[in-house]
Write a structure and sequence with these properties.
With 208 residues, this protein is mainly alpha-helical. The chain is 81% helix and 0% strand. The chain has helices spanning 2-24, 34-47, 49-81, 83-98, 105-112, 116-140, 144-152, 157-168, 170-191, 200-206. The chain is elongated and about 75 Å long.
């Protein structure tokens, strides 16, 4: 029943969208009717270009998100374990998190130019802080008794990190990758508008 309601609502929305564009006379430059979108998608699929662009986008997303995760997860675990470090850098991380990621794009373009590395860094920037902060907060939420028991047995900081904090933070790490991955996907579409020759984001510009 719910699935049927969804399809009915989808038909109504697409039909209303198509009718509005056709009857209002609005320029397709500002609002493209669904029929044109589906026709373009069909040509994209028939030519095989769709698979090339999807491959390029998946590769870029994997590289950017992988780079963000490789740096952010160890950093989040470390900041979560060392409370003094958290007090020192925590306010700056929260301030950076409140800053929109697109603000950093002009600097990346000036430093690295319109290169594949720049596009990887753009994707990484979008996913980095959400991953780091979620891992950090996950470590802070661990049962304090686990840490006390490890310290009673004279566990070093490395052992504390590897044997207690890391296993206890697996859920937070997976959740952070889900959040960071969603934002990295947004970064992917932004990155592919800067000098890319393939990719789904590039096609949204070419097909406009």
């Amino acid at each position: 029943m719910k699935r049927g309601a969804f399809w009915i609502s989808l038909v109504i929305v697409l039909g209303g969208w198509e009718a509005y564009v056709r009857l209002s006379g609005i320029s397709p430059f500002f609002l493209v009717p669904p029929s044109v979108v589906f026709a373009r998608l069909g040509r994209w699929l028939w030519s095989g270009q769709l698979f090339i662009d999807l491959g390029a986008s998946v590769l870029l997303l994997s590289a950017g998100l992988g780079l963000a995760a490789v740096v952010a997860i160890p950093a989040g675990l470390t900041i979560g374990v060392w409370r003094g470090l958290a007090g020192a850098v925590g306010p700056y991380l929260l301030l950076a998190y409140a800053t929109p990621a697109p603000v950093l794009l002009p600097m990346l373009l000036m430093w690295f130019g319109f290169t594949p590395l720049t596009r990887v860094l753009i994707v990484a920037v979008f996913g980095f802080l959400p991953i780091l902060l979620n891992v950090w907060w996950g470590v802070r939420g661990l049962d304090a008794s686990w840490l006390r028991v490890a310290r009673v047995f004279c566990a070093s900081r490395r052992e504390l990190l590897v044997r207690v904090v890391l296993p206890g933070s697996v859920g937070s790490i997976l959740a952070s990758l889900r959040v960071g991955g969603g934002l990295a996907l947004i970064g992917l579409f932004v990155a592919e508008t800067y000098g890319a020759t393939h990719g789904v984001g590039h096609q949204t510009i070419v097909g406009a």
